[in-house]
Amino acid sequence: MADVNVEGEEGMKLELGKIVTEKVSESIKNIDVMGMLQKMVATQPEDEESEEIRQKLQGIMDQYEAFSDQDKEQFVTQLKDVLASKLSLKLQNTPLDMSGIEDAIRGAVMPQLYMMAAAALIVFLLIVFFGYKLYKSIKEKEKKREEKKKMKQMKKKK
Fold first, then answer.
1. DSSP of 113-142
2. 33-42 and 69-93 are packed helices; what angle lies between their axes, rounded to 10 degrees?
3. Straight-line distance from the first to the last Cα atom of the chain, in angstroms, rounded to the nearest whole number
4. Which domain holds residue 1?
5. Whole-angstrom Cα distance, residue 158 to residue 152?
6. Could you read off the pLDDT of 81-108 as tens digits, one per residue?
7. pTM, whole model, 2 decimals?
8. Is residue 132 in some structural domain?
9. CA-to-CA distance for 114 and 107, rounded, in angstroms?
10. Number of domains, the chain
11. Any bridge partners for residue 110, and if so which?
């Protein structure tokens, strides 16, 4: 399977192909299989092969209606397990093309990172500028105090 590895925050690698396969298999276990089969039986066939499949599904649905509640539950559970395993096997044998996902993630994240870096740089420069102005102002006040002190000492000496 063509897995795309993306560095996570903790430095862990995410295997997107494997995650997608697991989530699809997990979602199969949560679907309404009988509702899906009923919809398939209710559709109009487009060709002979579709009609044949629809008739077979209709036969399965008729047999399902004759089952007891416990047998119905067991049948649905087994059907979901079979569908999940077949789909998992198919997804493992067929590589998912996720080559563009890393580029898409990078394309979505990088402009935001640049904006954040620019904002941080501007804030840093503002802090440095005002810090320098404050430092300069304090030094100038200190210098004036020193001059005043010297002037007072000069006056006292006279």
1. HHHHHHHHHHHHHHHHHHHHHHHHHHHHHH
2. 80
3. 96
4. 1-97
5. 10
6. 888 788 777 777 776 666 677 778 888 8
7. 0.43
8. yes
9. 11
10. 2
11. none
Tokens representing residue 146 in the block: 């020193």
Closest CA to 102 of 16, 24, 18: 16
User: Is 41 in contact with 55 (CB distance < 8 Å)?
Assistant: no
Give me the torsion for CA of 47, 49, 51, 56, rounded to 10°.
Answer: -170
Per-residue pLDDT of 31-45, as tens digits, reads 777 787 778 778 877
Q: What is the pLDDT of residues 43-96, one digit of tens each?
A: 877 778 888 888 888 888 888 888 888 888 888 888 888 887 887 777 777 766
Asked if residue 152 is part of any domain, the answer here is: yes
For residue 108, count CB atoms less than 10 angstroms from its CB and return exposed for 0-12, middle for 13-18, buried for 19 or more: exposed
- 17: how many CB neighbours lie within 10 A of its CB? 20
Question: Are 128 and 70 found together in one domain?
Answer: no
For residue 109, give both structure tokens: 């994240």
Name the E strands within the chain: 5-7, 13-15
Which DSSP symbol is given to 67?
S
- Sequence letter at residue 17: G
- According to the model, what pLDDT value does residue 25 have? 72
